[in-house]
Amino acid sequence: MSNPVATPGAQKSLPLILARELASNLATPMFLLDAAGMLVFYNDAAALLLGKPFSELGEITGGEFGADLELAELDGTKLRRLDSPSGIAWSERKPAHKRVLATMYDGTRGAFEATAYPLLGSTGEMHGVMAVFWPDTSGETAD
Amino acid sequence: MQARVWGCRGSIAVPGPDTVRYGGNTSCVEVRLASGHVLILDAGTGMRPLGVSMQNDLPDELHILLTHLHMDHLQGLGFFRPLFAPDLDIHIWGPSSPVQDLSERISMYLSPPLFPVRLEDLASNTTFDNAPEEPVTIGSATIRAAKVAHQGPTVGYRIEENGRTFVYLPDHEPSLGADLANVPAAWMSGHDIAHDADVLLHDGQYRDDEYRDHIGWGHSGVGDAMEFANKANVDRLVLFHHDPYHTDQELEALLAGARANWPGLEDRVSLAYEGMVIRLDEAGVTVR
Fold this sequence. Notes:
The complex is a heterodimer of chains A (about 140) and B (about 290). Chain A has one domain (about 15-130): PAS domain (Beta-Lactamase, 2-Layer Sandwich), CATH 3.30.450.20. Helices cover about 25% and strands about 30% of the residues of chain A. Chain A contains five helices and six strands. Chain A has a six-stranded antiparallel sheet, with helices on both faces. Chain A is globular and about 40 Å long. The relative contact order of chain A is 0.19. Chain B has one domain (about 1-285): Ribonuclease Z/Hydroxyacylglutathione hydrolase-like (Metallo-beta-lactamase, Chain A, 4-Layer Sandwich), CATH 3.60.15. An eight-stranded mixed sheet of chain B has the order 6-5-4-3-2-1-14-15. Chain B has a seven-stranded mixed sheet with strand order 7-8-9-10-11-12-13. The interface between A and B is medium-sized, with 17 and 20 residues.
């Protein structure tokens, strides 16, 4: 089943609206992709880590977001967009978790853990992806 | 098209001297299309007198559009006489579920021990469909549903005919977790089906001070209902789903307060009442 294409400016689906409100009221860093794979929101907690408020960034594709963050495996190998947790959740419609290297908008690079899961509606239709992420404090590396 | 309100009370039927002007029956609205087709929005207790009114002049088919399956939107179904009319085609539409189809969920009410008659024993030809989230044509109207913020799977309906739009959102809490005034339209539940409506029947269950104690219950304060209608560019707002604890006098005080807070919109907001008839045609909108 392919994921739908979003219509710019159209109303977001209800599950996405409710997910955004949940994220807005939490101190857990979260971001949302819509059914077409667009980054449509991240909360203030995520903005603190990323170094840029969402209102300043605006909606961009998930691919652009991943490229901005220079996502990589812990050994430094570049991470393909669809191999990131949000990429897996979006393309394979299943939850995913991973430790990754990422560069924030303020230039800080570090290890993060991320968990993403798909938002599937009552008839199995795709609404998007909700992802949480946090600094990896384990100190473990690929070495 | 012409809409007639048969019940506009929320939560539970409240007959009695305190509810004479606006009525005590729960949600049910009859919509007659220019083509002669009949739509029935929700199956609250107002459906019983509606059934009586049409039992001697039944159309060839009926469409019952359920917003959700809470009892105040379903309880009248078992007392709707056309349901027992042999060979009448009745199409029942309602919100989808990942677990059970619509007939199975309705059967939980229309079966013992809650009800003596089983759904499968009805004489009419009854079919069930998920509420159409893509436009469907029924007679002279185009109808579309959309999931909206309430408790549990719930939809609202948009009915368009001859350039006029009638929208029904009886149970809706678009401000859940959000300051509605600052929410972009694209992120507002219900906006997609309510925008630019000529007439919107919308949840207005609580006074604004009451809403603060009922956040998350699935309903709106009057201020939020008006903010929603304003942001959706609705021409005329009809407050619906009156709180069962609000008397006629309290409802009128609620309306007066709302109008005072929204100068310039006084003539565009009113209270739904049993017997209210709203006509939408090329000439415009009339209410009596």
